[in-house]
Design brief:
The protein is of the alpha/beta class. It is built from 10 helices and 12 strands. The strands form 3 sheets. A 7-stranded mixed β-sheet has the order 2-8-7-6-5-3-4, with helices on one face. It has a 3-stranded antiparallel β-sheet with strand order 9-10-12. A two-stranded parallel sheet has the order 1-11.
């Protein structure tokens, strides 16, 4: 498979360059009445919000059952010794005054009234939904923009006093930046061995597990046209969704970050797509929700791609569905 025809996978350093603007943009999100702090990763952003609240009052902390265990392990390194509980339904939160992480699952999902009407502190995880940042109702909202394009920046928005950056750049940040640069060089043909950048990305992922909460300037956020990024994703998603309407396939979420589908033969189809140069990630594979972990497949629809790329995905899906009887 020609490397220029890969769909999915990690971002290279300049993948979204056509969405950069030479001048500042009006922020397309309603952040004006709230403070914003930048971090390197989503785990840093959530950890900071947790620490801020736990320093005020010790409360039990509830995470969704499907939440990624690897992310939780990273949070626990940064915020040790908090009282952790899991929930799959809102009614399972028994404490009257808890810190609750609400996950916007592949699109905006309103925070349950039962969480808002009590004395809870709600931290909204908006990593998979930029729309959720416009409709925020919790005390904090966090997102990780490295899930959307090639910048290592996460953001916490909330009602707090601004805190100056406290930590130097982490080892992860340096290693991941190098990995993206190496991938760019590989795409340009200046590096022949794909394994070089793949190994570097793996090295960066290992460096994610650290004890510091790493801050980062939010300046780079303003360099991108987020309306255009979201519109390209919507266009790509709709193309895939129109095809899937003709199939007995369950679609999960609102298809904001991916077109996420549920399949019994997920792993077979995923391997089939990979052989066609289409790299579809799986979500919450290490979570406590075994049903989601074993059946979800996330089809890439991000702004790197166009209609011709979506046609390739559909063609591969059609062949895969016929082959495996999906």
């Amino acid at each position: 498979m020609n490397k220029e025809k890969y769909i999915g996978g990690s971002f290279a350093l300049e993948d979204s360059s056509r969405f950069r603007k030479s001048e500042g943009l009006n922020i397309p999100f309603s952040w004006s009445s709230n403070n914003t702090i930048g971090f390197e990763t989503g785990a840093d952003a959530i950890s900071w919000a947790l620490k801020a609240e736990l320093n005020l009052a010790k409360r039990p902390v509830y995470f969704p059952l499907h939440y990624c265990e690897e992310t939780l392990d990273r949070i626990k390194k940064k915020v040790p010794n908090f009282q952790l509980f899991r929930y799959s339904e809102p009614s399972e939160v028994k404490d009257k005054r808890a810190i609750i992480i609400w996950n916007h699952f592949n699109g905006y999902n309103p925070v349950p009234e039962i969480f808002l009407s009590k004395e809870h502190v709600v931290i909204e995880d908006c990593v998979q939904s930029l729309q959720a940042l416009q409709k925020r109702t919790g005390k904090f909202s966090i997102t990780s923009l490295r899930k959307w394009l090639e910048i290592d920046l996460a953001i916490t928005i909330g009602d707090f006093e601004y805190i100056e950056n406290a930590n130097d750049t982490s080892e992860y940040f340096k290693e991941n930046k190098l990995a993206k640069k190496l991938k760019s060089l590989w795409k340009k043909g200046e590096i022949s061995d794909e394994k070089i950048y793949l190994d570097q990305f793996e090295k960066a992922e290992k460096a994610l597990k650290n004890e510091i909460i790493a801050f980062h300037s939010t300046d780079e956020f303003y360099e991108f046209d987020w309306d255009s990024i979201q519109n390209q994703r919507k266009e790509n998603a709709q193309f895939i969704l129109n095809y899937l309407k003709t199939k007995p396939i369950e679609i999960i979420g609102n298809s904001e970050m991916f077109v996420m589908i549920k399949l019994d033969k997920r792993d077979k189809l995923r391997s089939f797509l990979a052989n066609r140069g289409i790299f579809a990630p799986v979500h919450w594979i290490d979570s406590q929700n075994t049903l989601l972990a074993g059946t979800l497949l996330s089809l890439p629809i991000d702004q790197r791609y166009n209609t011709a790329d979506m046609e390739r995905i559909i063609e591969a899906l059609e062949d895969g569905f016929k082959f495996f009887g999906c």
